[in-house]
Amino acid sequence: MKDHSTAMRAGLEAMYLEKSKTTPIDFAKATAIFLGYTKHYKDDTYKIVEAEAEREFSVNSNVNNTEYKIYGKLDTIVRDGSKLVQLEHKTGQRDADSDGVYPFLTANVSEQVTLYSMLMAASGEPLTHTLIDYIKVPTLRPKRIPKGDTSEAKGTRCEIIEDGTYLGVEVSKTTQELYESDPKAKENAECYLIRINQHIEENPEKYFARSAPIHRNNVDMVNELYAMELVLDDIEECQNTGIDHFYRNTSQCLAYGSKCEYMSLCDGTSTEDNGDWEPRQGGNKKGSNKISFSKATCFKSCRRKFYYRYEESIQKVGYDTQSLRIGSLFHLGVEFYFRSLIAQESSNE
């Protein structure tokens, strides 16, 4: 029998080790959706096969005949009876029961789904289908806590100070002291997490949903392989020619509502040698012949961004310490949650 409490602790502990890389409120959001997700799906009958499953295979480019590894890391692989299924976790800010969930709208044409299906087929483990596992990131913000006349008024400073609880949940002495000393203080991370946990528990349909099965056939996968080979050829053509062929796509400078990390290099307000930049951390650094979905997508969206990220292999100073956001923390927690369940099942065999 699966011990979900042990698995949840494993996920929370992994997330806690990365807590310093994000803000207390973002950490609370990641914790809330992790707790909500694991509770919502704890009765799943899937057998967890692998979490963060790495797969790759070799191809040769047509330009320099360089050997590359087409690489991918699948979120979770499960068995549904005899069917091998991928669960691909996606986070977003739309309600899960709305018509505008982007990963659902694009699921049937998703190159990532096709690439991962191709990798699994190439490794001799063909997927029956893929499911997009959508998780809404809380959009509620910390609010100012009203005074309240008595401790019976839940969600008030009076409740916190007199009963040591917020919305009926016990809080720390530090939180009590905060609201005793500062009557204008908004919810701190502890109080905010309590409120978000309750909101998720009361409205699970707004936070969690899964797509219909997404299938890929052999033709889809062959076409994806051909597309990846074309990207590799284009990359090598650029490498043979120089930075001018890694041209800019200015429509991507402010894509997804945020400024591109390398925009100051492109607009001339920074240079590579002025102390703003450092060697890039993480995978796919300079000299790597691995090509992943994210690396290929970066090249197709903006070649100049690709140049700075993968050819020069630089990042903004301090960027890595700030880059672990809500979705990444959630993925980390779920990875260790599923790994714990796998370990439990192995020990029971």
Topology:
Elements: H1 4-16, H2 24-40, E1 47-60, E2 67-80, E3 83-92, H3 102-105, H4 111-122, E4 129-136, H5 157-163, E5 165-166, E6 169-170, H6 173-181, H7 189-202, E7 208-210, H8 218-241, H9 263-266, E8 277-279, E9 290-292, H10 293-301, H11 303-311, E10 314-316, H12 319-322, H13 326-348
Parallel strand pairs: 2-9, 3-4
Antiparallel strand pairs: 1-2, 2-3, 4-7, 5-6, 8-10
Helix pairs in contact: 1-2, 1-13, 2-7, 2-13, 4-8, 10-11
What does this structure look like?
The chain has 349 residues and is an alpha+beta fold. The chain contains 13 helices and 10 strands. Strands 1, 2, 3, 4, 7 and 9 form a 6-stranded mixed sheet that branches.
In short:
The protein is α+β, with helices and mostly antiparallel strands. Helices cover 43% and strands 18% of the residues.
- The beta-strand count equals 10
Number of helical segments?
Answer: 13
Approximately how much beta-strand content do the residues carry? 15-25%
Alpha-carbon distance between the termini? 11 Å
Radius of gyration: 23 Å
Class derived from helix and strand content:
alpha+beta
Poorly predicted segments: none
Order of helices and strands: HHEEEHHEHEEHHEHHEEHHEHH
Q: Sheet with the most strands?
A: 6 strands, mixed
Oligomer: single chain
Helix content: 40-55%
Shape: globular
Mean pLDDT: 93
